[in-house]
Amino acid sequence: MKEQMAINGGEPVRSKPLPPMLRGAMVYGEEETEHVAKVVTAGSPFRYYGPNLQGAVEEFERLMAERLNVSYVLGVSSCTAALIVALKALGIGYGDKVIVPANTFTATAGAVVCANAVPVFVDMDDTLNMDVDDLERVMDDEVKAIIAVHINGSACDMDRVMAFARKYDLPVIEDVAQSLGCTYKGRYCGTIGDIGVYSFQMQKILTAGEGGAVVTNSPELFERAARYHDQGNFRDKGKHQITPKFSFIGQNYRMNEMTGAVMIEQWKKLDTVISAMRKHHQTIREALNTQLPGIRIRPSIDLQGDVDCVFALQHATKAAADSFVKAMNAENIFCFKMYGGEPIYMQSFFLHQRTTDKDNFPFNYPFQKPVIYSKGMCPHAEDLLQRTTLLPVSPVMTDEDTQDIIKAVVKVYKGLNLEEISWPNSSLA
């Protein structure tokens, strides 16, 4: 006999919500407080000089470089800043196009525009990441780079992304904002392409509220990134033993010492955060595959490398997904659709190419192949995002919390008869 769902008057699985959709913020402790206090007491919050400089940002960069096995790390003020810095390090600007996946946060495409270039959008595959098979559709001589986004803790198919990029001599930026610690075939995401970017915003795997980082193995790209983030200065040439090659005007995207102090302590907790999320995610996965054999869980190109910060289910129809979200929230299990179920280009300012600049610069460039955004341009993203639901996974969830998620999913799935709904021909294999 089916248990009555809360949405129909039954008793909810939980009487109170699960932990919020936060990761690193949930493991804050005295360590972060004490390290920030040292910076404040020293009166030296600026990373490059002060009466008693603590070197927090530099130490964080060292720890990050050591863990990721990458030559250079640059702390910056946000991941949006990191994206702009990476684009400028690669020389991207007015008259250039940059390939961006349809499924990503506003900042990925927005940073391209802020770098005075224009994004061209590629469809996503069933993993919710970039569909490599769709890259040829948007490729032309005006495309100058690719941004591969590792979405919600799971890697892109980087072997194929890199093969395509090398075929056309395109640099690759890896956006790892949502997937710190994620690996692809044993390598950390962000270290496979030419340059990688990370986020330490509030909802991310580790957080200082805001903050970001740029990583690369190229001394030239590092120098250009360092200069652009520090108004044209290159203050670390001695430390890295790099002979300067460039001179240009930059902006101010520097990370401050208080952010660096927090990130040092957060960085020490990375394994704890990821292992906890993986444990809960695996428990949910195994239970649902057993209790609901027909359920469709988001596939992964490298399941062992995922950081498992969300649990994604894919449904047969939009209506089924809508009903699932509503019913799960009634059970006090937070459930939602990523970005409201729409690809990034459907946001009005992208769709209509609106900027604050004259003639909607940089969209006013006379491209040989005009850049036009429209509904239907990435059909799989438009379809599957409406049929995909996400359940956040927190590192401070208890085993009881995990069992409540399982119980609620099974209850709602059976209560809505989701196993009986026919899948469209375009659904997952």
TrEMBL record:
<protein>
    <submittedName>
        <fullName>8-amino-3,8-dideoxy-alpha-D-manno-octulosonate transaminase</fullName>
        <ecNumber>2.6.1.109</ecNumber>
    </submittedName>
</protein>
<keyword id="KW-0808">Transferase</keyword>
<dbReference type="InterPro" id="IPR015424">
    <property type="entry name" value="PyrdxlP-dep_Trfase"/>
</dbReference>
<dbReference type="GO" id="GO:0008483">
    <property type="term" value="F:transaminase activity"/>
</dbReference>
<dbReference type="InterPro" id="IPR000653">
    <property type="entry name" value="DegT/StrS_aminotransferase"/>
</dbReference>
<dbReference type="InterPro" id="IPR015421">
    <property type="entry name" value="PyrdxlP-dep_Trfase_major"/>
</dbReference>
<keyword id="KW-0032">Aminotransferase</keyword>
<dbReference type="InterPro" id="IPR015422">
    <property type="entry name" value="PyrdxlP-dep_Trfase_small"/>
</dbReference>
<dbReference type="Pfam" id="PF01041">
    <property type="entry name" value="DegT_DnrJ_EryC1"/>
</dbReference>
<keyword id="KW-0663">Pyridoxal phosphate</keyword>
<comment type="similarity">
    <text>Belongs to the DegT/DnrJ/EryC1 family.</text>
</comment>
